[in-house]
C-alpha cells in the first residue's frame, strides 16, 4: 500500500520524541509483517533483509490497511523487542523473556509519546 502513513503525524511524532528526549530511540524504515504468533525464522529474516526490510513483526500492517480503507489518517510505530537472528550457527534464540524485558523498559517512554501526540492532534481532523 502506497502512502499509508500520514506525514503530519510522522512529523508530530518526531517533534514529540525530541521534546521528551528520545530522539535517539526513533528510527524510520521498512517494516515487514509476517503472520504469527511465532517468531520469524532465520531464513525469513535473511530473505527480508535482502528485500530491504529494517524490522519485522506480527502486527501493524493489517490494522493500517483497514484504517486507510476507512479513510483515516494513520501513524504507526513499533517497539522493537528482539533482535533478528541471521546466523544458523548461533546459540541465540528469540525468546519471550527478552520481549517482555524490552517492553517493560520502554513502556513509560511510549506512554508519554502517545499521550503527548494525542493531546496535540486537532479534534475532528481524523480523516484524510
Automatic annotation (TrEMBL):
Residues 1-117 form the Nucleoside phosphorylase domain. It comes from the Eukaryota. Pfam families: PNP_UDP_1. Gene3D superfamilies: Nucleoside phosphorylase domain (3.40.50.1580). It catalyses: 2'-deoxyguanosine + phosphate = 2-deoxy-alpha-D-ribose 1-phosphate + guanine; inosine + phosphate = alpha-D-ribose 1-phosphate + hypoxanthine; guanosine + phosphate = alpha-D-ribose 1-phosphate + guanine; 2'-deoxyinosine + phosphate = 2-deoxy-alpha-D-ribose 1-phosphate + hypoxanthine. Its EC number is 2.4.2.1. This is purine-nucleoside phosphorylase. GO terms for molecular function: purine-nucleoside phosphorylase activity. Belongs to the PNP/MTAP phosphorylase family. It comes from Thamnophis sirtalis. Pathway: Purine metabolism; purine nucleoside salvage. One of its GO terms (biological process) is nucleoside metabolic process. GO terms for cellular component: cytoplasm. It is an enzyme of class 2 (transferase). Keywords: Glycosyltransferase, Transferase.
Amino acid at each position: 500500500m502506497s502512502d499509508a502513513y500520514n506525514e503530519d503525524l510522522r512529523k508530530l511524532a518526531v517533534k514529540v520524541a525530541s521534546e521528551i528526549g528520545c530522539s535517539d530511540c526513533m528510527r524510520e524504515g521498512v517494516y515487514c509483517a509476517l503472520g504469527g504468533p511465532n517468531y520469524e525464522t532465520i531464513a525469513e529474516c535473511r530473505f527480508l533483509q535482502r528485500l530491504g526490510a529494517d524490522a519485522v513483526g506480527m502486527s501493524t500492517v493489517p490494522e493500517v490497511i483497514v484504517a486507510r480503507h476507512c479513510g483515516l489518517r494513520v501513524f504507526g510505530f513499533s517497539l522493537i523487542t528482539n533482535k533478528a537472528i541471521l546466523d544458523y550457527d548461533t546459540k541465540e534464540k528469540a525468546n519471550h523473556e527478552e520481549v517482555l524485558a524490552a517492553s517493560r523498559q520502554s513502556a513509560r517512554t511510549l506512554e508519554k509519546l502517545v499521550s503527548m501526540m494525542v493531546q496535540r492532534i486537532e479534534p475532528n481532523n481524523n480523516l484524510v
